[in-house]
Design goal:
By secondary structure, this protein is α+β, with helices and mostly antiparallel strands. The protein is about 60% helix and about 15% strand. It has a six-stranded antiparallel beta sheet.
Length: about 350
């Protein structure tokens, strides 16, 4: 019964501290993001209301990224306060083992694991995409141009060149190079625009179709035509949302699309595994905060421990990005590239806890 009361008390302290830390970080990042958008004001119809709307829609993605750091600092603050008032010491003398405290933190941490997953999978991706669309529509800009000639995508025996993609996924200036089984160019389809109608179907407008048969070329002009392709708006969504902010479903579909066309998938596979593993980082951060609760106030004040927590959180964030980049560059196994930062921090937490227990 006493353990349950303590668990509820500790959970309340951690939840309140984490909420305050996350709110502070969100306000700080929103301010800097808004400052960064000021230089774009006046481009097309992009004014302050549109900038505020765009920054607001990127906040769920920021929350997803900041959850582990906020949980670390919030847990560290709550545990340090308990240590300062000798509450943890009293509980340990009363028979509360380190394992019991770890189990308590894990139970509390499940809430943050679930929240991180929900934000990363269901809230951040659509919000990010809506924000990008709002921004691009206001600027009257296109979504992406991977090369000077536009975006290139391989679809089985066809190579698709799209000059630009509008925010509503309408294709502009489309060229489709269709090759036969022996990699001979069979036809070129040129269209002024393309609209996605149904699964696997696009409607192209102002079409010029050039066929190559028997060493001759024939040209046909059409007002519109139906074009079948595996290219979908979900695949094009990679142009609007970075891999780290995409949903697991879209990442999985795009990885399959790239693999089916024998293109490199490492970056998106790493992002896929990170999406699965990243929510567990919140629990790792809580375990990392536990050793600080065993140090009394004479061995470091609250401010120092909070500073250490911020530095650890920043280090974790940087390592996540570093191992993702190194994994993509060096073709490391995606799973290990995604799990290594969390594993390193969990190992460090275990070693620190062992050292504190041995003292």
């Amino acid at each position: 019964m006493a353990l349950k009361i303590f668990e509820r008390y500790l959970a309340r302290e951690i939840h309140v501290a984490t909420a305050l830390v996350l709110s502070a970080f969100m306000m700080l990042f929103a301010f800097f993001d808004l400052i960064g958008e000021i230089q774009n004001l006046g481009r097309g119809n992009y004014q302050l209301p549109e900038a505020l709307g765009y920054v607001s829609l990127t906040l769920p993605g920021r929350a997803y990224e900041l959850f582990p750091i906020a949980v670390l600092i919030g847990s560290l603050y709550a545990l340090t306060n308990l240590a300062r008032h000798s509450e943890i010491t009293v509980l340990r003398v009363s028979g509360l083992s380190t394992l019991s405290l770890l189990v308590t933190l894990v139970r509390i941490g499940i809430v943050y694991v679930a929240l991180t997953f929900v934000f990363g999978e269901f809230i951040a991706p659509p919000a990010e995409r809506a924000g990008q669309q709002l921004r691009l529509r206001a600027m009257s800009a296109v979504v992406a141009q991977d090369f000077r000639s536009g975006l290139w995508v391989r679809d089985e025996h066809s190579f698709i060149n799209v000059r630009s993609v509008s925010p509503d996924n309408r294709l502009q200036n489309v060229r489709v190079y269709v090759f036969g089984e022996r990699f001979r160019l069979e036809q070129i389809i040129e269209a002024a625009d393309g609209v996605y109608e149904d699964v696997g179907h696009w409607r192209l407008g102002e079409v010029t179709q050039t066929r190559f048969e028997n060493a001759r070329a024939s040209v046909v002009h059409l007002d519109e035509m139906v074009w079948r392709s595996a290219l979908t708006p979900d695949i094009l969504s990679v142009l609007l949302v970075s891999p780290e902010r995409m949903s697991l479903t879209n990442l999985y579909q795009y990885v399959r699309h790239l693999a089916g066309n024998r293109q490199k998938t490492e970056r998106y596979e790493i992002a896929f595994w990170k999406k699965l593993i990243y929510p567990l980082s919140a629990m790792v951060m809580m375990v990392l905060a536990l050793p600080f609760g065993y140090l009394n106030s004479r061995q470091g004040g609250v401010s120092l421990k909070i500073f250490i927590g911020i530095m650890l959180g920043i280090t974790f964030h940087m390592l996540n990005g570093l191992f993702s980049s190194l994994g993509a560059i060096n073709s490391w196994p995606p799973f290990w590239s995604a799990i290594t930062p969390g594993a390193l921090f969990l190992t460090g937490a275990g070693a620190t806890l062992w050292w504190v227990e041995r003292r």
